[in-house]
Specification:
Blueprint (H helix, E strand, L loop, with lengths): L5 E7 L12 E6 L5 H8 L18 E6 L3 E5 L10 H17 L3 E9 L6 H12 L4 E6 L6 H15 L8 E2 L8 H11 L2
Parallel strand pairs: 2-4, 2-5, 5-6, 6-7
Antiparallel strand pairs: 1-3, 3-4
The structure holds guanosine-5'-triphosphate and magnesium ion.
Length: 194
């Protein structure tokens, strides 16, 4: 897929504010600071379209990007960010949950995992939750530039084991720094677009 246009459409705090058109959308999920916003910028080939930050908890709204005037890339707030109040965490959790559950335009989810770490409880919860609701998931192991090429396969095996990933599903190895994995992600998105 060639990216011709990518436009920021809006940042929303409530489900009822989301765009009403029946345009297919792909959402990013993953721990806070895992690299969701950075992936969006790399894959859409725009340097500062989505705001990324080394401080976790940067994305606190549901952000919409219209791609090729055909589909939306949706940046969701990360889970597990420690520095927000319990009340705010619950509010985000509920918002993300009702988004994933109710949004009929949602055709797939990209779940990001840090290639260096074993998936945590939240990652596994998210995975089983998406599976239960039959939402197609693309697992992306990101920050691949941070480990040696030799260490990758071992990390991928550990991730697969922890997440109980089906044999035929292979996580895409990605780096927002080098751009590795970008084409594979675009191909996968393309294959689920109507
Ligand atoms: P929240 O909005 O807080 O949920 O975070 P996020 O998942 O959107 O993460 P973001 O894209 O803001 O990236 C967090 C930090 O990780 C930033 O400092 C990025 O530069 C860095 N980062 C993201 N992806 C990569 C990568 O592939 N390689 C390296 N080396 N750094 C990355
Ligand atoms: Mg972000």
């Amino acid at each position: 897929m060639h990216i011709k246009t990518a436009e920021f459409i809006g940042a929303f705090v409530e489900i009822k504010q989301l765009p009403k058109e029946l345009i297919p959308e792909i959402a990013m999920v993953g721990r806070s600071n895992v690299g969701k916003s950075s992936l969006i910028n790399k894959v859409l080939n725009r340097k500062r379209l989505a705001k990324s930050s080394s401080t976790p908890g940067k994305t606190r709204t549901i952000n919409y990007y219209l791609v090729n005037r055909e589909w939306y890339m949706v940046d969701l707030p990360g889970y597990g960010y420690a520095k927000v109040s319990k009340a705010e965490k619950q509010k985000w959790g509920k918002m993300i949950e009702s988004y994933l559950y109710k949004r009929k335009q949602l055709i797939g989810v990209i779940q990001l995992l840090d290639i260096r770490h074993i998936p945590n409880e939240n990652d596994m919860l998210m995975q089983s939750w998406l599976t239960n609701y039959s939402i197609p998931i693309l697992v992306v192991a990101t920050k691949a530039d941070k480990i040696s090429k030799g260490a990758r396969q071992k990390q991928i095996s550990l991730i697969r084991k922890a997440m109980d990933i089906r044999a035929e599903v292979n996580p895409i190895v990605f780096s927002a720094q080098t751009g590795e994995g970008t084409d594979e992600i675009l191909e996968s998105i393309n294959s689920i677009l109507p």
